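Continuing the series of single-chain predictions for the mutant panel. This is the parent chain; the variants come on the following pages.
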Amino acid sequence: MSRQNPFCDVIIRADSSAQIGTGHVMRCLTLADRLRAHGLTSRFLCRDLPGNIAGRIHKAGFTVTLIDGPEAQTCAEEITTSAPRWIVLDHYDLGSEWARSCAQDHPVLAIDDLADRPHHCALLLDQNFGRNREDYDGLITPDAKTLIGPHYALLRPEFAAARVASLSRRSTAPARHLLINFGGADPQGITARVLRHLAPEAPNWERITIVMGPAADTLRDVHQAAAQLGPAASILTDVTDMARLMSESDVALGAAGSTSWERCCLGLPTGLLVLADNQREIAEGLHNRGAAETLADDLTTLPGFLARMRSSDTDRLAISGTAATITDGQGADRVARAMLEIA
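Parent structure:
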């Protein structure tokens, strides 16, 4: 376990690995950045898992304690030493018991997507579509405040900065650039499977950009599948300018996870796949609203979706316009301000 200057305003407990992905840490990094803009320092507590992105946390200017000992004891000691104003917990396997044993009297912001377990918190954030406070009845105390819905989605500031230009070009740009991104880890190998189904449609696109994490176990399979798509296909890893890339893309294929809010902010029409149970409600909500289209699990609807996005400006722009109403990219600042109002 690495030791750093212990004092900070906010302790953030979140994990990343080659298996569980990077989404929890990435959205917490976004919140930490906004808190820094308000003068608060943050430090991360992350378990030392294979494929973790501790290096990216350091690169963003935050310190990290890598946990290699007992969870509760290690975290309680770190929190006691740091004396933070806030603790942020973003972890599906840790809930009210962790908060009671580790947080002690410090206020906790619990970030959740599932509404399936109790939280001992002063503030709860669930940025998902279709969720409401009643979903947490009995899971949080009556005096806990809630921030519910994509209005509070934790998007990096570059998405809000790119929003106007991205939405403006949608009305004039034809569908030529296809973006494919199913998360950094790609644990189910979905990317290569999508590329194989995409092969007959590939000649109709000038650019096919595939985004992967550098530690993804499936990179070799993805390279092999992409080679069959011809020169239009390229693979990018460890992308740091996703807002620009999404703004320059005309259609996307992706998972119905937290990246959905980034695509909505920029009005990027998307074909969604559900890769985890907690993504199903997001996919259904966006599909029913007309802000995205959910694809069949067996990918049989993929060619038809792409063909319509190419041939019908009306269909593509309808999805884009509706998606843009879901979130404006200012959620992280709203969450930071809510924290400052409490403690």
